[in-house]
Structure formats: structure tokens, C-alpha cells
Specification:
single chain; 223 residues; alpha/beta; 6-stranded mixed beta sheet
């Protein structure tokens, strides 16, 4: 778009050597793309299973409670899909009800983590797998989803312990995948294109949360 007649004329004067070099570069680029695609899809081949440790968690201190297999897709992130985002959710219910529905194969959705009001963290899906949490396939593939116990219209549900535990969790995710700690990469469910959700809602203190995430990230870097 935006090409002029002059630019078309210039294109016709490209020399044979430039075309050869360009063609070689294109071939190399295609080979790299093909290699990357194979690396992303190897685990989908029949009989291929990446070794998993049953009950393993990605966040130290988290409790493992497996979500239903129907609510997530097996993957090998970040090798097959790069992770560059964290999505913040609110359960619109109790911690126990969130865990229960994520274990229900008929629910069709689940997040990687659920954070309780007292700061307890439960992991239900491994970070390397794709959770059905954002309501957008592309965002599911590129993000880690964190649910928080409570209701969007009850600011008292967002406790100090919840903020602190969630911030440590998000800081660890950002450090693992080199995700910038900013509001372009740490977003609310409401900000996912195509979603009809409103969480985490107007009572979620983003300034406070991002400050805590940055503090937790600095602490990780010093450890």
C-alpha cells in the first residue's frame, strides 16, 4: 500500500545479482521457518509425549490440583507458542467453586492458577500448556491466566495477602519468559479482544499491583 509510480520503476531496475541474493535469503528464511514450525509441532506426532512429572508446579509453594483435560490443550510452550502476557481474572465466586468448575469437563474453561484471599496459590494447568481462560485463542496461546477469588464489585475481596501472593506469581512468570512488567503485557480479562468479561473490575488496584510485581521481580533478581 502507498506505493508510487516511481517506486514501481525502481523495482524494474533491480539487478540479477540482487535477485539471486534475495532469492537465497528467502530460501534460508523459509528453511528457518520450516524448522521452527517442526519444532513447534513435533509433540503433536502420534505417540510423542513430552515427559511430565505428575503433580509438578511452576510456582514454588503452589498446590497442584489438576483441571479437567477438556479445559486446556497440551502444548510445549514457550517452544511452540511464545509466552508474552499474563491475564488477570476474578472468579466471581469462591475459591472452592472456581476449582470445582475448572475440574468439570463440561465447563470448557480454566486458568493456570487460582489465588485465594489468604494468599494460597493453586496451580491447575502447567504453564507450558494452553489454558482456555481468555476467550480468545491467540491470547490463550500466548498467555498465563491467573484467577483471584472474589467478586468484581467487592473491593474487600482483594486482600493484602492476595495482592502480595499474586504479585510474586506474576513476577516469576515475567522473569521466566522475559515478559516486560507493564500494562501492555500484564492485562485484565476485560482487555482481551472479543471478550464480554469485565474482570478484574474497577476495584482492582492496578497501580498498587504493578508496583508489587516490580518489587517482587527485583527480589527475585537478587535471590
Amino acid at each position: 500500500m502507498g506505493a508510487t509510480e516511481g517506486s514501481k520503476d525502481s523495482d524494474r531496475r533491480i539487478g540479477r545479482r540482487a535477485l539471486i541474493v534475495g532469492g537465497t535469503a528467502a530460501a534460508v528464511g523459509s528453511a528457518v521457518l520450516a524448522r521452527d514450525e517442526l519444532a513447534r509441532l513435533w509433540w503433536r506426532a502420534p505417540g510423542v509425549e513430552k515427559p511430565r512429572v505428575e503433580g509438578a508446579v511452576d510456582f514454588r509453594g503452589a498446590q497442584w490440583v489438576a483441571a479437567s483435560d477438556a479445559n486446556w490443550r497440551r502444548a510445549d510452550r514457550p517452544d511452540d507458542y511464545g509466552i508474552d502476557m499474563v491475564v488477570i481474572h476474578v472468579t466471581q465466586g469462591s475459591f472452592a467453586s472456581a476449582v470445582k468448575v475448572f475440574q468439570d469437563p463440561g465447563h470448557g474453561a480454566a486458568a493456570h492458577y487460582v489465588v485465594r484471599k489468604d494468599g494460597h496459590v493453586t496451580q491447575m494447568i502447567r504453564e507450558l500448556d494452553v489454558a482456555y481462560h481468555a476467550g480468545n485463542r491467540s491470547y490463550n496461546e500466548r498467555s498465563v491466566g491467573i484467577e483471584h477469588e472474589g467478586f468484581v464489585d467487592r473491593p474487600q475481596d482483594f486482600t493484602d495477602k492476595m495482592y502480595a501472593a499474586s504479585a510474586r506469581l506474576t513476577a516469576g512468570i515475567c522473569a521466566r519468559y522475559d515478559i516486560p512488567v507493564d500494562r501492555e503485557h500484564v492485562i485484565g480479562h476485560v482487555e482481551v479482544p472479543g471478550t464480554d468479561h469485565t474482570d478484574p473490575g474497577r476495584h482492582w488496584d492496578w497501580d498498587r499491583y504493578m508496583k508489587l510485581v516490580r518489587q517482587a521481580g527485583r527480589a527475585l533478581a537478587r535471590a
